[in-house]
Design brief:
Largest sheet: 7 strands, mixed
Subcellular location: Cytoplasm
Family: Belongs to the kynureninase family.
Shape: globular
Bound molecules: pyridoxal-5'-phosphate
CATH topology of the largest domain: Aspartate Aminotransferase, domain 2
Organism: Elaphomyces granulatus
Oligomer: single chain
Order of helices and strands: HEHEEHHEHEHHEHEHEEEHHEEHEEEH
Number of strands: 15
Keywords: Cytoplasm, Hydrolase, Pyridine nucleotide biosynthesis, Pyridoxal phosphate
Pathway: Cofactor biosynthesis; NAD(+) biosynthesis; quinolinate from L-kynurenine: step 2/3; Amino-acid degradation; L-kynurenine degradation; L-alanine and anthranilate from L-kynurenine: step 1/1
């Protein structure tokens, strides 16, 4: 049988073989999609908290019990935009680190074990870059696993924000994540400039649906080009889930002589970034969201190869390398231990490192990257587009027969799949949030809230299933109706 589904249902799979649209809205279809999901095996690589564990008051467990009893029903975890779940293999990586340190002591810096998952301590940073590069569309030379997001933003702004009398402004969105806002503001002050004058804020045109149009961003770049030197934007906006047109905005900023840095906190491990090909100058991100490396895990950065070049030839007019803050770990590996206090950076992003990295921390990041390296961002993005589209479809079904006044929520994330990642932000009618969250929690559903009225729901393609999405929608709908009834009674 061959038939076509209506265009708005492009996320549905016609090989499910039913012409009855409503059947696609049932649990059976979700189950069928899960059974046909080529990435399904990755779900087993994560410790998704059980419903019982979420309620647990103590960490300690009875003797002989498994630390995570995977036979208990899992919660529905849709919060990878905030903190990804724990990869099962993380214990193995950390245990190896502990054993290597215990058995080798300081000699572990240069000597590794034959069966070790990672090289000796001094080379773990390079191994991390190798594993990380494919996630962001970069060469290993262009990325480094180091520091934390905000600290890395400061480190890179020290190199990329070089104001002068004529050009000194930084363009940033008005609703930027606070840490980015503070970093930019303080960098401006650090140069004895006034943020009131030097910070150009891009404000959304519609406060209720704070999406920034690409044209608006380009216009603001044009309007400020004579005095601006740098643009800082999020690849994916934390609140709305909007995925920006990085290639186009980057090219435009460059055409006006501005450099541009991207905060990829919500994009890495989520969408198929091509930072090198998009000609991005620099980018920063963390690894605790979609990359699942644990709270506060070591972060990552990207520096385009043209900014990482090192040429120490004498008598050259231009600087031998891009000016930056320096530390011994950014020094050329071959001569680092000569200790001659004559700084020669490693080429590429590694030359922006300052300190020797925590191997404990890097082991957690490597464990998680190992899972990503078994698939590709292209494959993950394919599933993600379908899964998020499916979530959207089920949510919109609830509003299908309602007038805008009757709707209990709206989706503020762009409806164009190309302009979003795995997250949909749902704006609830005022006064519903607390009750909705209560019902979700009672039912073992983990999402996150942005007060006063938004919840963010993120089906991550590595570990979320269609059944997760289906179950979430069923309970969310129930929760909204209950919350509205309670509100109407009061
Ligand atoms: C978009 C964005 N930027 C910056 C940060 C700050 O990250 P960190 O605390 O790791 O520096 C976060 C944290 O969630 C974020 O979501």
């Amino acid at each position: 049988m061959d038939f076509k589904l209506p265009v708005r249902n492009a996320v549905l799979d016609p090989s499910f073989h039913t012409e009855d649209e409503e059947v696609y809205d049932g649990r059976e279809y979700a189950k069928w999609e899960d059974e046909h999901d080529s990435l399904r095996r990755f779900r087993e690589e994560f410790v998704i908290p059980s419903k019982e564990d979420l309620k647990r008051k103590k960490l300690s467990i009875s003797e002989g019990a498994a630390l995570e009893d995977l036979s208990n029903p899992r919660c529905i975890y849709l919060c990878g935009n905030s903190l990804g779940p724990q990869p099962l293999n993380i214990r193995k990586y950390i245990d190896q680190y502990l054993r290597a340190w215990a058995t080798k002591g300081v000699t572990g810096h240069f000597v590794s074990h034959e069966d070790s998952l990672l090289p000796s301590f001094v080379d773990v940073d390079s191994a991390g870059s190798q594993m990380l590069a494919p996630l962001v569309g970069a060469s290993p030379n262009e990325v480094a696993v180091m520091g934390t997001l905000t600290a890395n933003l400061h480190i890179l702004m020290a190199s990329f924000y070089r104001p002068n009398k004529e050009r000194y402004k930084i363009i940033i969105e008005g609703k930027a994540f606070p840490s980015d806002h503070y970093a930019v503001e303080s960098q401006i002050r650090y140069h004895d400039l006034d943020p009131e004058d030097a910070m150009v804020l891009i404000e959304p045109e519609d406060a209720d649906r704070p999406i920034l149009r690409t044209e608006q961003i380009l216009q603001i770049i044009d309007d400020n080009a004579s005095k601006a030197v740098l643009v800082i934007l999020p690849a994916i906006q934390f609140y709305t889930g909007q995925y920006f047109d990085i290639g186009r905005i980057t090219a435009h900023a460059h055409s006006k002589g501005l450099l541009i840095g991207w905060d990829c906190a919500h994009a890495v491990g989520n969408v198929d970034l091509q930072l090198h090909d998009w000609d991005v100058d620099f980018a920063v991100w963390c690894h605790y969201k979609y990359v699942n490396s644990g709270p506060g895990a070591m972060a990552g950065l990207f520096v385009h190869e043209r900014h990482g070049k090192v040429s120490m030839a004498e008598n050259k007019k231009e600087a031998p390398y891009r000016p930056r803050l320096t530390g011994w770990w950014g020094h050329d590996k071959n001569t680092r231990f000569l200790m001659d206090n004559n700084f020669v950076p490693q080429s590429g992003a590694a030359g922006y490192q300052l300190s020797n990295p925590s191997i404990l921390d890097l082991s957690a990041v490597a464990a998680s990257l190992h899972i990503f390296n078994q698939t590709s961002m292209g494959e993950l993005r394919q599933k993600s587009l379908k899964l998020t589209g499916y979530l959207e479809r089920l949510l919109l079904n609830y509003n299908a027969d309602l007038s805008p006044e009757e709707e209990l929520f709206t989706i503020i994330t762009p409806s164009n799949p190309e302009e979003r990642g795995a997250q949909l932000s749902l704006l609830l009618r005022p006064g519903l949030l607390d009750h909705v969250l209560e019902v979700l929690e009672e039912n073992g559903i983990v999402v996150d809230e942005r007060k006063p009225d938004v919840i963010r729901v993120s089906p991550a393609p590595l570990y979320n299933s269609y059944t997760d999405v289906w179950e979430f929608c069923r309970i969310f709908h129930q929760a909204c109706q209950e919350a509205a009834n309670v509100k109407n009674k009061n």
